[in-house]
Amino acid sequence: MKIATFNINGIGARLPRLLEWLDETKPDVACLQELKAPDERFPEMEIAAAGYRAIWHGQKSWNGVAILAREAALIETMRGLPNDPDPSHSRYIEAEVDGVIVASLYLPNGNPQPGPKFDYKLAWFEALLARAETLFASERPVVLAGDWNVIPTDDRDDVFSAARMAADALSQPESRACFRRLIHAGWTDAIRAIHPRGPVYTFWDYTMNAWPRDAGFRIDHLMLSPAAADRLVDAGVDRATRGKEKASDHAPTWITLR
């Protein structure tokens, strides 16, 4: 079972790239973020023609998340987080697919920090941690997939330049502490389980020639409950997708489970 996460950065503008990627890589489940489209503008027919069922939680101009499934049934289990500090933002959707609970999430960016946007990021993270605790207690295979907007460490393995990102909300100790709480609670960072060392970037900015210079960082994560981690076979990043014309600034990140 191949499960991928892809911040599409506007499903209207990037639909050709999305359909191309789905055809080339054929993930069984694809979690999308930053749809930047209201519910009625989600391209359901085009996604269906590509062989995927879909559920989505859209929002005009900003945010928006979706889960696509090929062949298997897709049963929605939650839309939005309980205790979400701002439920007007569409940042979380969850479903059961072939016995696995899969969540597509888009954690707030938090910039500029300090300030209300960073406070919102931490408050949203707390709501996510509470949901993660409930899911963990179920002892079921669970995959929390998405754009977490957290660079886990200052290592070159996670970020091209820790000094360059030091003031950014993605690198702050408070948000990193929330991420580590998940790991300490027993969740597995799938990419690092398969690739413990070496740069595995998932995002390259459009500015400063970041993609040709490989000036990227790792913010797209798939976190696995123990029952899912026991089935982990492989994980990786579809880097080539980032290099195509009119691409998202994120690359799809994926796992394979037995």
UniProtKB/TrEMBL annotation:
Keyword Magnesium applies: yes
Domain Endonuclease/exonuclease/phosphatase: 4-250
PROSITE patterns named in the record: AP_NUCLEASE_F1_4
Residues making up the signal peptide according to the UniProt record: none
Keyword Repeat: no
Cofactor(s) essential for the protein: Mg(2+)
InterPro entries named among the record's database cross-references: AP_endonuc_1, Endo/exonu/phosph_ase_sf, Endo/exonuclease/phosphatase, ExoIII-like
Swiss-Prot/TrEMBL keywords: Hydrolase, Magnesium, Metal-binding
Coiled-coil regions listed: none
UniProt record similarity statement: Belongs to the DNA repair enzymes AP/ExoA family.
Entry protein name: Exodeoxyribonuclease III
Organism encoding this protein: Sphingomonas natans
